[in-house]
Structure formats: C-alpha cells, structure tokens
C-alpha cells in the first residue's frame, strides 16, 4: 500500500485477506467480504454475504432473523474506510484508526435477512483535515436497504487511551 499515482487511479477487487490488511476488525465484526471496485477518494463498492451463521441472528430475532440496522450502518462505515485508507502509506494505515464521529439521516428501507448479499456503496462528499464525510447506501438485489451520511476521523493510534 503506497500512495496512489493519481486521484483518478482505480482499484480492483480486494478479497477478505486484503481487507484484513486495511481494517483491524475480525470475526464477528468484520462486515465486508469483498471490495468490488474503488475510485481513489471518490467511490467504493463492496459487499457482505449475510449468512444464517451470523451470531446476531440467535437473538435478532428468534424465528424472524433480521440483520440489525446498526450492523448495516457498520458495514457501510467499514466499506467507506477504504475511500480514506486506500492510497495511504502502509505505516500510516498501521498506525491509525478509523473512527465514526457522526451518523446523519439514517433511513432503513428494507429488511436484510440470511442469504442476502448486502451491496455497499460509499461516495466521498468532502474532506477537511482528518475529518471525512461520505454518503453510504446499502442495498439487496438493487433495492435500497439503508442509507446514511457518515462522518469519520482517521486518528493516530497513539492518541487512543
């Protein structure tokens, strides 16, 4: 992971092993299975395969398994992290943490159930210093399941308690 040659550079597919090089999340909180496409600091498309084996389905809800909305939003945030982290030097990614600072206008449109492929798209709206703002949409079979405007900060790990 080195600086990208140009802001117009596009990134190809990233599998789960590549994803784990960027994100510190691990099972059961790794919510992105594959990054399908990415345009440097503009847009990312990814997905999560939703399986009945997900631990949250044991309690949400017995007999009516629904993916919790907060985890759909978390999936969007993890996908959105690639907009910011892709193109940074490996040592910067390793020494930083991507943290939510705000979630605005969240709307849940369609339940997400086992067997669904949750498609995740995030588009960068603006960036100021270490603060990033993006619009995220999660969909299943082309039908929006959730949408939100997310803000996040990339903070050095040494600033964490």
Report on this structure:
By secondary structure, this protein is α+β, with helices and mostly antiparallel strands. It has three helices and seven strands; from the N terminus they run E-H-E-E-H-H-E-E-E-E. It has a single domain, classed as Hotdog Thioesterase (Thiol Ester Dehydrase, Chain A), CATH 3.10.129. A hairpin with a 2-residue loop joins strand 5 and strand 6. The radius of gyration is 15 Å and the shape is globular.
Helix and strand topology:
Layout: E1 10-11, H1 16-22, E2 34-39, E3 43-49, H2 69-85, H3 90-94, E4 96-108, E5 117-128, E6 131-140, E7 143-156
Antiparallel strand pairs: 1-2, 2-3, 3-5, 4-7, 5-6, 6-7
User: Please, what is the CATH homologous superfamily?
Assistant: Hotdog Thioesterase
Distance between the termini: 27 Å
Unreliable spans are: 1-9
CATH architecture verdict: Roll
Structural Rg: 15 Å
Q: Give the class-level CATH name.
A: Alpha Beta
| Helix amount | 10-25%
Number of domains: 1
- In which order are the strands of the major sheet placed? 1-2-3-5-6-7-4
Q: What's the helix count?
A: 3
Q: What is the mean pLDDT? A: 89
The percent range for strand residues is: 35-45%
Summary of the model, kept short:
The protein is an alpha+beta fold and 161 residues long. 18% of the residues lie in helices and 40% in strands. It has a seven-stranded antiparallel β-sheet.
């Amino acid at each position: 992971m080195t600086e990208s040659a140009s802001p117009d550079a596009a990134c190809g597919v990233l599998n789960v092993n590549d994803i784990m090089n960027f994100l510190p999340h691990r099972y059961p909180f790794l919510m992105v299975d594959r990054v399908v496409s990415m345009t440097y600091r503009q847009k990312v498309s990814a997905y999560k395969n939703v399986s009945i084996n997900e631990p949250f389905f044991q309690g949400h809800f017995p007999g009516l398994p629904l993916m919790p909305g907060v985890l759909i939003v978390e999936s969007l945030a993890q996908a959105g992290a690639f907009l910011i982290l892709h193109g940074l030097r490996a040592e910067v990614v390793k020494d930083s943490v991507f943290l939510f600072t705000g979630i605005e206008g969240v709307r849940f449109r369609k339940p997400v159930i086992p067997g669904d492929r949750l498609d995740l798209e995030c588009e960068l709206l603006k960036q100021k210093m270490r603060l990033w703002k993006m619009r995220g949409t999660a969909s299943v079979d082309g039908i929006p399941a959730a949408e939100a405007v997310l803000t996040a900060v990339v903070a050095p790990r040494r600033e964490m308690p």
